[in-house]
Amino acid sequence: MSYTALYRKYRPSKFESVVGQDTIVSILKNSIINKHISHAYLFTGPRGTGKTSIAKILAHAVNCENFNGDICSECSTCNALITNESDIIEIDAASNNGVEEIRTLRDNVKLLPSVCKYKVYIIDEVHMLSTGAFNALLKTLEEPPAHVIFILATTEPNKIPVTILSRCQRFDFNRIDLDSLVSRLNFILKEEDRTLPENIVSFIAKVSDGGLRDAINLLDQTLSLSLDNILISDVEALSGKISTDLVFEIFELLKNSNYVELLKIISDFDSKGRSYADLVNNMLIIIRDYSINSNVKGYFDSDYSHKLLSLSLNIKDLVGISKILNELLNELKNSNNQRLIFEIYMMDLISVINNNFSNEVICSQSNCEEEVINRSDTIVSQEINKIDETNNNKSDTERLSTESQIVEDSSTIEDSSDIKEETVISDKKDDNSIDFLELKRIRINNVFAGANKDILNKILKDYDRINDYISNKTYNIIAALLIDGKVVVASDKYLLFSFNDESYISLFDANYKHIEVFMNEIYDIPFKVVAITSLEWEKHRQEFILNKKNNISYVLIPENDVKLEVGESSNELENSAMNIFGEDTISVR
Known about the structure:
By secondary structure, the chain is an alpha/beta fold. Helices cover about 55% and strands about 5% of the residues. It contains 27 helices and eight strands. The chain has helices at about 5-10, 20-35, 50-60, 75-85, 100-110, 130-140, 160-165, 180-190, 200-205, 210-225, 230-240, 245-255, 260-270, 275-295, 300-310, 320-335, 340-360, 365-390, 395-410, 415, 430-450, 455-460, 475-485, 500-510, 510-525, 535-550, 570-580; strands at about 40-45, 90, 120-125, 150-155, 170, 485-490, 495-500, 530-535. The strands form two sheets. A five-stranded parallel sheet has the order 2-3-4-1-5, with helices on one face. Helix 5 (about 100-110) links the parallel strand 2 (about 90) and strand 3. The longest helix has 25 residues, at about 365-390.
């Protein structure tokens, strides 16, 4: 005899074996006993909660000759239905949703039942019917023959016309509670003479989200594992659910700004083909639970409450974190490269969470150095603006000399800046970070110095070629990044990119050398690249227009004095690029 799946083997055949829908069962039994049987029922609710099973039981019950609270299974009608269910017609509306099928049904309802008192039509997934099919069904529902009963089942009642809804008795099936699921699973295990640890049974019930069919299916799969000791991680792999431990680990890495390790986890997650949307939803659940745990003591069990407390998030900013995650969910729906979008938003979350902690803890070394860098960049910009105001009175040689002096002065700002006493800074200076800011400033200046509209038009004309590399194993990530930006200024040696989101700039800066390799692949020209936000671009554009109007020219500044050590000792973002593209793909020049 062939194997029968457990969900089919233990499908309820009587009202007494129905799990978790006591109110609905009670109403239906009383209506049959009191002979108050409706001509049309609508069963709605989540999948796997018993809609179709109860529809079949109801179809048998209304025809049972000795019904006294449940099907007797002994009368002539019950015995006849075991071998002949011609008077109980099941229709799958998903594959029979046309007008012609419903017209055929409308003609057949006029025929009397062959065995039973009632001819029962069970239409599953009724929301899939077309508008024309609903219209064809409407008249029959309004004035049905006395011997016909319709039972409509759906998971999406909102898609059913109001005219149909108003002609049915509606029953909303609820998700089955955890205790009922566990009890049913233990019953099946006992009947099958099998055992599982209680924590495994509870986990199966929990991840089934109130659906008994899903729970039994997962139990069936778990029992097929040839393992002596089945672990929760094994069941997680079978169910496809995201591990709670994984979500906690991601939050811990975000809190510690450990983007390199985070990229490794994302890479492993991506290789398993898991859903990023599910992962983000689980992150939102953790944020929701953290909020509840912080305000309602004893709501969760002690172990889970302790894990939530270990996150140490700033409760005041949970709404902001939730907004970012919700934005990410919307972006994932429309993205062809979900991994890239997820990674970029994780960078944004790192920034937000770090800002959350800045008012609560002493500044760490990396945060303090970032503060110094930002202040350095601000002072450099202020000095350049002062130069611009007096530039008309200076020769080109004088301007170049002054700007070079500003570059030199900016490298010593860290030693002279006024830092609060409680701020702790390492004695080691992050020269590479300062130098990179100088490099960006020089490149922005140089691209304006050689700005050429004809070159820009040629670049923009062929820019769509980047789309051809979306499926390229070597350049797909870079291509997906650059598609979201645009070249706004071009010269014979430099390209200036603009992005709307600041997080794209971080990813661009971390991998600018590899982007230069890609640009050479596209245009066969060794361009040097630099990127700014759209707000920064607007500011530079206005300055450029004003300088042109005042006949102030930009002077090329050599990059030779800026020494960057990029490679194994490069910063964390550079290492993150290695995780994204792989060592075999990237060749640092």
